[in-house]
Amino acid sequence: MASPVSNGAERHSGSLIVVRTVDECTSETFVRITADGSVSAYNGHVDLGTGIRTALGQIVAEELDVSFARVVVVLGDTAVVPNQGATIASETIQITAVPLRKAAAQARHFLIARAAERLELPAAELSVEDGLVRGHNRSVSYGELIGGETISLELADDVDVKPVGDYAIVGQSVPRVDLPAKATGELTFVHDIRVPGMLHGRVVRPPYAGVDAGPFVGTSLIAVDESSVRDIPGLVAVVHIGDFVGLVAEREENAIRAAAQLEVSWKPTPTLPDLADVETALRANPSTPRTLIDKGDVNAAIAGAAKPIQRTYVWPYQMHASIGPSCAVADFQHGNIRVWSGTQNPHLLRSDLALLIERPESEIEVIRLEAAGCYGRNCADDVTADALLLSRAVGRPVRVQLSREQEHAWEPKGTAQLIDVNGGLNADGGVAGYDLATRYPSNAAPTLALLLTGRISPEPAVLQMGDRTAIPPYDYDHMRVVAHDMPPIVRASWFRGVSALPNTFAHESYIDELATEAGVDPIEYRLRYLKDQRAVDLVHAVAERAGWTPRPVRQDKDGEVVHGRGFAYALYVHSKFPGYGAAWSAWIADVAVNKTTGDVSVTRVVAGQDSGLMINPDGVRHQIQGNVIQSTSRALMEEVSFERGAVAAREWGAYPIIPFPDVPKIDVLMLPRPDQPPLGVGESASVPSAAAIANAIFDATGVRFREPPFTPERILRGLHGDAAAAPQALAAPAAAPPSRIWQNPFAKRSGIFATIAAVCTAAIGIGAALLPGRAIGPIARPDASVYSAATIARGQQLAALGNCAECHTTIGGVLNAGGRALETPFGTIYSTNITPDVETGIGAWSYPAFERAMRDGLHRDGRQLYPAFPYTHFSKTSDADLQALYAYLMAQPAVRATQPANTLAFPFNLRALLAGWNALFHQTREFKPDPAKSELWNRGAYLVEGLGHCSACHSPRNALGAEQREAYLAGGFAEGWEAPSLTSLSHAPIPWSKAELYTYLRTGQSRYHGVAAGPMAPIVRDLAALPDQDIRAMAVYLDSFNDTPTNGQTPDALAAKLESATQVTVAASTGARLYQGACAVCHEVGGLPLFGSRPSLALNSNLHSTTSDNLVQVILHGIAEPASGDLGYMPAFKNSMSDAQVEELVTFLRQQFAPDKPAWTGVKETIARVRSSIH
Amino acid sequence: MTQTPIRLTVNGRIHDIAAARETPLLYVLRNDLALNGPKYGCGLGECGTCTVLIDGSAARSCVIPISGCVGRDIVTLEGLGTRDRPDPVQQAFIDEQASQCGYCLNGMIMTTKALLAINPRPTEQEALAALRYNLCRCGTHVEILRAVMRASGQLTEAAD
């Protein structure tokens, strides 16, 4: 089959089409054959990644007797394909392919009749091969038969289609036509559409994440502050209509930035139903009962049961979880509106779009392109409407890509479901009665923009879709099934298997329980009630394939890991009640359950299916395997989390899906039924999944689990009761609170200001000698040419050592021009301009003025400088070095720039008091080497204590912001980050060594400690200017403060021990799952090497520290500017994880990777503080 | 932000990119260089759909700024081969029909490429571990694993 290249139906000299007339002016084409022999087939459904395009091509090629390669299948363009409704319910092959098949057969009949006439032979004596009709050594092609004519046939109902026995193409496995292009990046997904002049849009969604009903929907926006994005380059428009907020920019990354930065104020969302307890929420949701079947006398039968059994099954909210967040492009031109969309239902979407923008449908063309698999209704329609609104606003084509967070939060969920079964056993072990009530709070999820803009009412519709396979496949004498139709609680719509999967979970769990109670083998018990012969055949075939051993009585299993096997069967019944069946499906699942950890592995699944005639058997096999894997994932690990009623899961850590190592071995058994009509295979194999797995877990453990997902926590609760599942409390005592002087010296100190004032006042007397603060006269800007290039270069190195630029440059600003806001506990200080501009910088500063500033902390004009400028360190610098530094600074380009005024609280705004401060804490003293130490040590000391000013951050500070001399390098705080201790007080699990200090300072990373982040990253970057020998000297000096014993273990041995002891093998908590989904890819020991470093969390100093600050910093803000690009980057999770999730993650990481350390306290407060800090 | 163009080497060709230095590589590959292979999946490096090779290692282009890519060798899916001349890894994925919707396929192929570069004959366990953090929602894992084994010459003909 030819791959789809163009959706336009090209016209050659003549053509034959088969059409269905809809009304006087509309007809729909199913098949077109042109005079050049090419064949186009049109179907109203779309390929959701299941391979429908290939299968439809096979059907058409077969019925037309042309080669598969000749057929182009056109899907999903409203301008050319028939309206056959939404691509749902596995209907394509079963239902929408029927007219296509007939159309192809009809065309063949017509052409053969014409050939018979042309060749003057009876039709029965003709054969066709790839569109060439032959008979008695004569032949004529379809193209020749069509010639220049335009032939239009009205699609007939009573067309003879080929007998199955004649099939040559249908029933053969054919490779998918789309895969070569997909594997080489040549296929155009909707995400890849580029239209000339296209702009990039992003939307900003309201705070009621994932909720689409209630009076607040569409009415919660208070204001959008457009000035908040004024600095975004290429911003084209900010658009808001009701609660719809979007923006458009020339470049995508700028649209993303703008969406993150846009300040939008919303009304508080009213209290939403608490979804922590799904069962209660569903029972409380208003509903209308609808009886689907009421057979026999259920009440009497259950009343008379020898053993009544009443059970409740709870299904969680789940996500479609498309791998690609939805995307669309819209081009709004008057009278000609085109959208490119990944929709499941192009025609229905077109109606929605027409309603949204109040234009007739005839002006709108929806072009459907392939998208990420959706398995139901995701945000594909929503984003198309978003793009249209933005395109209309700017009059240009706009592409909108939803973020991962938006797709997770707003996709219509596969709904939670609640199923109550009442019934029981008769004395003979037979089923007494079966009374099932199912609650399915879901609808079709209206296109979001319609709701957000107020075009439609946010009153939720009630859809009758809870009835899929609600009637069990078993012929119970007394049976009643009631669907309690109800509106959604959160935005929800169909998801693979729809209500049939949860309903079957109830049917198949319940009958398994009855079999156990009756002491009958579970398969044998089912067969007593299963009357459908094809079902019976399938069950037998699957049991045989799996080697099922009948087990009337469950055997108890010994050991920590117990194995079990479970069976389940289902016929997926879809479409409007009573609907019809798709493929029959049966599972035998094998599980291994670890009774200590609660971990469940599905080790093998035998999945049997009767799909009727299989168009493309390989395609069917892939669908079955895909269903098995996806539904195993759903049963084991998938559940949407909510906070205050809104969707909380916004990335893959909070909503994990099955990873490769957890995929079961799958044995697919496909019953050959070539004589039976083809059935939908897109969903059936999912339907028995959860029940088969639950039944296997019961076989393994003897415990019934009636609420997926079967997470370790839930298994442990089931096995051992609530107590066992409670998080293990750590025995270690809480550590003394860390010294946080620099960050918040006044915490819990009363009267501190009075004390400071008193101390300072007293100190003024002592410090009088320093007070004069005379001005040093200005000079003409020195001519930099008097300095040698070598001196300037050396000065540049020293400036790097001192990290001058770090404080004296604003982010993205001109080097050394000042103005950077430095947050101190005493207020905000703005750094000064140290370029040689005469008026605003230091251009008028003589060397003595510069030296005095560096050594005594005095401005040229005599003012005291604040000790945020670390002159207490710089004073140690040698004259020669200061001169070189002066030379370098004066040789820079002069930049005119003034900084804002400092905003310091009283009494710190009184500069004069600093004289007292200096008297108390400052010694103007050049560095004096210690003759008892090595030259290298002394060099290191000079660098570290002087310009390097390491202890400015790494030493604790007293109440007045001075370094505590008795706690030199014992650890401090700076800019919201902990600067860890560099002495023996270090909490690093592996002691620092000279070699590691050197490696860290040189590369920004130590294998045994982690990477430089926060304020340390730019320091390492700056140190790159220093020669190796100086870095070595610093390492030698710093190492002399560290005498932690290593107990004879090499760091490697210690690292291996720590890493193997802390491996994450089971994800048994929210925190653990967040780690696996978000962190492990880059941090797991031994993972596939990725670009950048792979910091080991077990060895990371931050995880072993007494405070969580640095860990919280990197999780929330990431590492965007590492010390070196070689280290790679870490994304910021602040917009993807809630505070509660970060707390879970941080708590888990601490417990997992620093198990010998006490749990951190105040993590919640730290998260709040770090989140709100300027970054 | 700077307006100085950033020079990138992608699939053997040099491009000067006029974008802010912090722009994630993914958007430049897709929007400036019109490469469709790398896909946006999560923006957090979690799912792997955006994977490219940087200096031969698998790299999640959604979290790597272009400033970090200067002077490095970037290869995308398009740089491996074409429909007419696919790379052996691409061919193995086609042969095993190792894709359904195809959205994750880029990441699967590029990660396999990076794996085989350092481990030409991985065991199944090693292959599973290497692909552990590439997410697939369609459930194509079985076919993908076979494709990896085929690409490493350990599976010469399709079973069944």
From TrEMBL, chain A:
Keywords: Heme, Iron, Metal-binding. Residues 790-893, 935-1042, 1066-1153 form the Cytochrome c domain. InterPro entries: Ald_Oxase/Xan_DH_a/b, Ald_Oxase/Xan_DH_a/b_sf, AldOxase/xan_DH_MoCoBD1, AldOxase/xan_DH_MoCoBD2, AldOxase/xan_DH_Mopterin-bd_sf, Cyt_c-like_dom, Cyt_c-like_dom_sf, N-heterocyclic_Hydroxylase. SUPFAM superfamilies: CO dehydrogenase molybdoprotein N-domain-like (SSF54665), Cytochrome c (SSF46626), Molybdenum cofactor-binding domain (SSF56003). One of its GO terms (molecular function) is metal ion binding. SMART domains: Ald_Xan_dh_C. The keyword Metal-binding applies. The keyword ATP-binding does not apply. PANTHER family: ALDEHYDE DEHYDROGENASE (PTHR47495), BLL3820 PROTEIN (PTHR47495:SF1). This is Aldehyde dehydrogenase. It comes from Bradyrhizobium neotropicale.
UniProtKB/TrEMBL annotation, chain B:
It comes from the Bacteria. It comes from Bradyrhizobium neotropicale. InterPro entries: 2Fe-2S-bd, 2Fe-2S-bd_dom_sf, 2Fe-2S_ferredoxin-like_sf, 2Fe-2S_ferredoxin-type, 2Fe2S_fd_BS, Beta-grasp_dom_sf, Diverse_Oxidoreductases. Keywords: 2Fe-2S, Iron, Iron-sulfur, Metal-binding, Oxidoreductase. Residues 4-80 form the 2Fe-2S ferredoxin-type domain. Gene3D superfamilies: 3.10.20.30, [2Fe-2S]-binding domain. It holds the Pfam family Fer2_2. The keyword Repressor does not apply. This is (2Fe-2S)-binding protein. One of its GO terms (molecular function) is 2 iron, 2 sulfur cluster binding. The keyword Oxidoreductase applies. PANTHER family: BLR6046 PROTEIN (PTHR44379:SF6), OXIDOREDUCTASE WITH IRON-SULFUR SUBUNIT (PTHR44379).
